[in-house]
């Protein structure tokens, strides 16, 4: 049987692909912390659900909604869910195509409280988003 | 949230990680397939692809020589195809440079052996500055 964390992660990917922002909010705790690594215009920590969805909005605006997450694997651990995804997108004539390992820490109520993403090519991600 | 039982691939990696941390670095090589490819993120002497069991295992021996790391396992998760190890890594090099970051190791398995793996630091820039 699929673990609940794995099921939830797949629901999240499907909801993200649909672009259903209201449904997406249900996945995250109010005080979620979303870490965006690298040295580009979106790098930094986004604290709270409002800041996170402002970030999602900026991502959509910058990429014209072209950013796609294609699942390679979803794994559930003691208190984290990991997704290995192929991330593609287009921005101003630049194309992104990287492997991104993403982890979501799950809080007591089942909502995600913290996020890290680690790409296999940070330089490519930095070049795609552009200077900070 | 109930912790799921470790998948056999994850359980095997848990043992390998424990042996590596206790000083038996060669334990990592024992889980590699002959034609494994190990991808190390970043732009430093340790980044790039290591192809083949001996080369990939040597990368881990080099990590041991870099400094005495403190490895705090955060979570470990796996299925038939992948194991993801989320860790908090701290270290100080002889010249005083320090590292304090989250990292992920992702391991792809076929027939019980790792055929491909990724070393993914949370901050590639910090890892580069530490390991150059």
Describe this structure in words.
The complex is a heterodimer of chains A (132) and B (132). With 132 residues, chain A is an alpha+beta fold. Chain A is 33% helix and 42% strand. A 6-stranded mixed beta sheet of chain A has the order 2-1-6-5-4-3. In chain A, a hairpin with a 5-residue loop joins strand 5 (94-106) and strand 6 (112-119). The longest helix of chain A has 15 residues, at 4-18. Chain A is globular and about 40 Å long. Chain B is an alpha+beta fold and 132 residues long. In chain B, 27% of the residues lie in helices and 42% in strands. Chain B has helices at residues 8-21, 53-66, 124-131; strands spanning 32-40, 48-51, 70-78, 82-92, 98-110, 113-121. In chain B, strand 5 and strand 6 form a beta hairpin.
How much is the average pLDDT of chain A?
A: 94
**Helix percent band of chain A:** 25-40%
Radius of gyration of chain A: 14 Å
Q: What gross morphology of chain B would you assign?
A: globular
Q: Care to count the β-strands of chain A? A: 6
Low-confidence stretches of chain B: none
Percentage beta strand of chain A: 35-45%
The count of strands of chain B amounts to: 6
Strand content of chain B: 35-45%
- What is the helix fraction of residues of chain B, given as a range? 25-40%
Radius of gyration of chain B: 14 Å
Largest sheet of chain A, if any?
6 strands, mixed
Low-confidence parts of chain A, pLDDT < 50 over ≥5 residues?
A: none
Classification by helices and strands of chain A: alpha+beta
* H and E order of chain B: HEEHEEEEH
Short structural description:
The complex is a heterodimer of chains A (132) and B (132). Chain A is α+β, with helices and mostly antiparallel strands and 132 residues long. Chain A has 4 helices and 6 strands; from the N terminus they run ααββαββββα.
């Amino acid at each position: 049987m699929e673990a609940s964390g794995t099921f939830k992660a797949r629901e999240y990917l499907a909801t993200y692909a649909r672009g259903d922002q209201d449904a997406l909010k249900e996945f995250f705790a109010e005080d979620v912390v979303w870490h965006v690594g690298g040295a580009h215009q979106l790098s930094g920590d986004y604290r709270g659900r409002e800041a996170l969805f402002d970030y999602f909005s900026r991502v959509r605006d910058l990429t014209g909604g072209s950013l796609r997450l294609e699942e390679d694997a979803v794994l559930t651990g003691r208190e984290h869910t990991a997704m290995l995804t192929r991330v593609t997108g287009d921005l101003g004539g630049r194309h992104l195509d990287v492997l991104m390992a993403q982890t979501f820490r799950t809080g007591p109520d089942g909502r995600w409280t913290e996020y890290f993403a680690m790409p296999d090519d940070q330089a490519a991600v930095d070049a795609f988003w552009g200077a900070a | 949230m109930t912790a799921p039982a470790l998948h056999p691939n994850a359980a095997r990696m848990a043992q390998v990680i424990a042996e590596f941390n206790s000083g038996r670095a060669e334990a990592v090589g024992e889980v590699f397939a002959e034609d494994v490819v190990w991808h190390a993120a970043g732009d430093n002497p340790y980044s790039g692809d290591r192809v083949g069991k001996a080369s990939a295992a040597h990368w881990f021996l080099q990590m041991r020589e870099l400094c005495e790391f403190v490895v705090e396992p955060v979570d470990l998760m796996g299925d038939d195809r992948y194991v993801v190890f989320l860790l908090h890594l701290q270290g100080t090099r002889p010249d005083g440079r320090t590292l304090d970051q989250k990292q992920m190791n992702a391991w792809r398995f076929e027939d019980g052996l790792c055929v491909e793996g990724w070393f993914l630091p949370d901050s590639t820039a910090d890892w580069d500055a530490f390991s150059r």
